[in-house]
Amino acid sequence: MTELPADPTSHLYQRHRFPAEIISHAVWLYFRFPLSLRHVEEMLAVRGIGVSFQTVAEWAGKFGGEYARRIRRMSKGAFADKWHFDEMVVSIKGKKHWLWRAVDANGYVLDALVQSRRNKKAALRLMRKLLKKQGIAPRVMITDKLRSYGAARNELMPGVEHRSHKGLNNRAENSHLAVRRREQTMKRFKSSRQCQRFVSIHGPIANLFHHPHNYITAAQHRELRTASMETWTRIAMPTPA
Fold first, then answer.
1. CA distance 195 to 222
2. How remote is the C-alpha of 72 from its chain's centroid?
3. What is the pTM of this model?
4. Domain 82-192 class?
């Protein structure tokens, strides 16, 4: 990951009654764990911090979005060259939507896009967004049997190897679990905009704290977790004058 800019977030906290430590902790709780806004409100109240769940929601949108943007800038170019694609159904006000998602070979979320269709046009939209943000095409893309992926790849990335097999795509399918748990906690998303905003913020923050357990010791995992928290602190805390 690249280095952080010199003066990251000091301007963000101007005219806010609560300090950066409390705001960033509330945002971290909300996006790091499957908690509702009222859960975060109560956890802060136990620590003597009187904040309403509406305020937590405002912090999640404003500060969570900025933290996610900073993590994305740090992560650009650091992902594996094998991309997994998948889509899951999200019911919003009784209408079926599709959450399209791409992750790399290590399980890091590349991007997610809420769309009302499950066709070639929707697949193209996700791939164009990925190519624009990553600045590079993958070496291999892995999908399920949905033909829309192949049609979109032929138009946009004809030189990329495409492996289409249901059993190869568990990594992308598993990445949906965190959003599915949050969907249950929130008793379904209220709008496609709310869902898109959540997944756009949740993905980068989840990446920062994602440490594959395979082939590492418990001590190494603790070191990685500590490094992630240090990075979070640099992202969220204003630089001293």
1. 32
2. 9
3. 0.86
4. alpha beta
